[in-house]
Amino acid sequence: MNQTHTRAIEALQPFIHIANSNSATSPRFVANIITNATSHPHTYVFAELLETPTIQSLQSPDIPPEYQGYLKLLEIFAWGTWQDYQASSSSSSSSSSSAKNIKANNETYIATPNLPKLSSEQAQKLRLLSLLSLATTIKPLTYSALQSALSLPDIGDLESLVTSAIYSSLLGARLSPSSNPPTVNVTSVAPLRDVQPQSLGKMITQLTEWEARCGEVARDLEAEIEAVKANAAIRGIKETEYKEMYDVRVKARKQDAGAPGTGGGVGNAAPVARRGPLGIRRGPRGLFGGNKREADDIEQDDGFFDAGDGMDIDEGAGSGRGNGSRTKRVLGGRRD
């Protein structure tokens, strides 16, 4: 529950206790309870007080006319507005139904036909409560709309009222007097208005419709979840089949590579020895069965090799030939 709402309920409890505990139910006594409750600076909800038998006794036809309007006044404080107070008048009255200022006992009162006059504290309280209702119904909440609805022709009085509501935690708002038009930008509204009993049927209908829409959204989400699960299952099956096929092919390649005569070095096939450029037998580990680095050193090109040819050896003079001429013989290749 909102903290401001809790404080408002706590502030109303003494008046409820008085209404329930005192056996005296004279119209004047009941009227005083309503006047004191609506004038208290921290009371903003009144439905619980309104439901007590003491307050409801004002509906009796035996109540004097001067006290009959107090029940209606408490209802306006509970869920009505400043405009409702101004509009309430006797159907038989031909006078204007607008509120009038009356000076009495150095205090300003606002009187409306058929309703009790309001003290300055009550007028301030009713305007604050009306501001809460207007903040949820008027978009944008302009200065001109508020001045008309709250009977505040002076802009300073309007800004003072809104500031009081902000500091009392009734509204979260910011004044924008320089905007066009000047506006009150509301960010939050305290839940301090009571629900009119006649509006309960409409609220139940709206909540029922909202529940039906939520059910449709929930069903759509469930269908989407099932579709995602089904797609994920299909992908899992395909991935499993692909992995099985991959493993089978890898295994087949390994078997082919290890078959005899394939040169894969697996199975019973012995490594095939190769011969180098000098006709020297070369094993799988290089020349003379040594390591690869030694074989690379031996096979390095020293300038005596021609690509595709053998090796020329100059036997030189004194090789046993009579004329001392130099002859060449070819090893491991052919001589053109």
Task: Give me some keywords for this one.
336 residues, alpha+beta, 13% strand, three-stranded antiparallel beta sheet, 10 strands
Structural overview:
- The structure is a single chain.
- Strand 1 and strand 2 (107-112) form a beta hairpin.
- The N and C termini lie far apart (110 Å).
- The model is unreliable at 89-109, 265-273, 276-282, 284-289 and 302-336 (pLDDT under 50).
- The longest helix has 58 residues, at 200-257.
- The protein has a domain at 3-189.
- The chain has 336 residues and is α+β, with helices and mostly antiparallel strands.
- Helix 1 (3-21) packs antiparallel against helix 2 (27-39) and helix 7 (120-137) crosses helix 9 (155-167).
- Helices cover 49% and strands 13% of the residues.
Outline:
The protein has about 325 residues and is α+β, with helices and mostly antiparallel strands.
What is the topology?
Layout: H1 3-21, H2 27-39, H3 47-50, H4 53-56, H5 65-79, H6 82-87, E1 100-104, E2 107-112, E3 115-118, H7 120-137, H8 143-150, H9 155-167, E4 171-176, E5 183-189, H10 200-257, E6 274-275, E7 281-283, E8 286-287, H11 292-298, E9 311-314, E10 328-331
Helix pairs in contact: 1-2, 2-5, 7-9
